[in-house]
Amino acid sequence: MKRSVMFQVFFVMVVGILLFNVKPVYTNPEIVPKPESVSEILSNKEKSQHFIQRRSVLNKFLKKAAFISEGANEKKVKAQQEEDEFKWTLETEGQILSPLVIDPNGTIYAVTNEIDIETGDIAAGKLVAVELAVGKINWEFDPQGKISGTPFLGNDNTLFLGASPAGSVGGTLFALSDKGTTRWIFDTDGEIVNSPVARGDRVFAAATGGVKIRSTLYAINIKSIDINNVAPEWEFGTDTRIESLIIMDSGIVIVIADEILVGSDKSKIFAFDPVKIADSGIAEPVWSFDLEGAFVAHPVAVNDKIFVPTLGANPEDGKVFAFSAAGEKIWEFAAGGAVLGSPVVDNGGTVFVGVNIIKETSDGFSAEAKLIAIDGNGAKKWEFQANNNTILEAIIASPVLDSSGNIFINTAGLAREGVVGNTYSLNASSGSVNWVTNLKGAAMPGPLPGIDNTIYTGITKASVNLKTQEIGDVSGSIIALDKNSGSIKNTFETKGAIVAPMSLSDVSLFAGTANFASNAISGTLYALRAVGAPPSGGISGVISDSETGDVVVNAVITAISDGGAFSDTTLSDGSYALGDIPVGIYTITIEADGFAAKSIEGINIVDGKSIIRNEALIPLASTGVV
User: Fold this and answer.
1) What CA–CA distance (Å, rounded) separates 200 from 247?
2) In degrees to the nearest 10, what's the CA dihedral of 23, 28, 32, 37?
3) Predicted pLDDT of residue 625
């Protein structure tokens, strides 16, 4: 398949941010915590909102790579029995370019995007709620426009979602229940171009490009609003473009904004104290700071310090700034290149950043990638140059630390054989190399630590002819690496590119793809068993009324064995699903208001299988029980 323009755009996707000072739209950070176990990853809801959506570069690639086809809107779920290497797969109507969000009740949320073929921009999107156990769609939400970033999962499982309705210069903040119903909406002056964030009783959202001013930060008090006429508790306007929102442990809201002037290489950081503003009634920052350099990657807040990467007028002018919670600049570090992923900070205060350096050559240019460790005073401790037989290599995502003192990076680039990438493991104290693994594909998301000494990486694969600038079909792989040696434990092929971070539950791995098959704009959500996960299976089905055949809603299904009890409640279509439960012999009980309870013994849950069990309940009126 000849796509000469695609070759150029794919090449630019990796280094265009450096070469042309392209400023992408960033949403949630890709900051992977340092977990002792997978459960610790899931326990922090805010850190499940990971991703940098490089829309202005990536969408151009999508425009050239994807074409609408007949049947692209058909949803298909393949069960484990049909495709053994995956627990299930679910085809979606649009590409999955944003991170997946998992709630504590066993639902996984995916944003799917439809691409405008003419412009390459995201034209529309949907939020899809999927039953984690079996891959069944519980509900879909269509905001009638494009979705910005990922939903933010609040304390009471409220989903906050920013969207820009089609044909409107404004945006809308939606508050959704975990059943997909709309609790309230708030219309903004300008598009919502990044993910909302929430803490306690307040949710914060930023809108850009409205009729009043360039950007507005909105604060909404969730408990005091009139859901029929939502109004912000306060708002703050700025003539800069708000690109990023984070909340510190102290509750201070940090806002990073770019100047909108063409060619500007300046940005600004604001800090807001919501409690102080509520008490005084004056919406103003407690401090602000003008930064030299445009916003590049999402900042991070760790131990009452804020670390902000910027990009200067030239690629080599990139810097990292450190601020105290009070707004004092602690240090600035000249990175010598562009930092595309968020910094990562260890328990000792060392900051790790991936730096990308562009050099002009007689043939055009070359690109190098370095991992740099910065101490608590802003001095370089060590640096490591990544170069594993590549023409070009870039660190796009954040590094990842583990609890054993190791740090991991993924790279994406080009070699003579095509699109390539590597995973590197280094000693975080010294920078010495533990191992490097060639992935034979571009690793754009960061590594994901799992159980059983496993690191997961998602890659995008494509063959490239450097002479003719032709690029072959695009696909992907999920690769499980041994954390100690770098050896490949398992490889799972996907039919689409993996550009968004993957997610883990206690026993399963989930990945979303953007599919580039000929004449198709679609995506696929994959679920597979995590390496080292204990044997498990599942059971699902539909509960109905034995007399009318109508489905029974809110019936409680419980699977009981010596190993414990697992429960689910039927949805509006009468369906239930119990997944990832240990193998064994179970008794299934079913209870619902107005019906006689039912018990089924001897249900055998086997490893890697999800059985279907539909049951009918007898109405109490038919049993003579009042």
Assistant:
1) 11
2) -160
3) 63
Q: Distance between CA 390 and CA 143 in Å, rounded? A: 43
3-state helix, strand, coil in the chain (%, to 5): 10, 50, 45
Q: Which residues, listed in sequence order, are joined to residue 510 by a DSSP beta bridge?
A: 503, 527
User: Cα separation of 406 and 130, whole Å?
Assistant: 34
Place of tokens 């699903």: 577
CB 271 within 8 A of CB 284: no
Whole-angstrom CA distances from 227 to 183, 190, 223 are: 7, 21, 10
**Between β-strands 448-450 and 433-438, what pairing exists: parallel, antiparallel or unpaired?**
unpaired
Token digits for 18? Answer: 């450096």
Q: What are phi and psi of 11, to 5 degrees?
A: -65, -45
The neighbouring-strand residues paired with 353 are: 372
Is 497 in contact with 476 (CB distance < 8 Å)?
A: yes
Kindly state the helix (H) or strand (E) to which residue 577 belongs, with its residue range. strand 575-582
**How crowded is residue 14: how many other Cβ atoms within 10 Å of its Cβ?**
25
Cβ neighbours for 43, distance < 8 A, ≥ 6 positions apart? none
CA angle 402, 404, 405 (to 5 degrees): 80
| pLDDT tier for residue 468 given thresholds of 50, 70 and 90 | low
55, 27, 28, 24: which is closest to 294 by C-alpha?
A: 24
pTM score, two decimals?
0.81
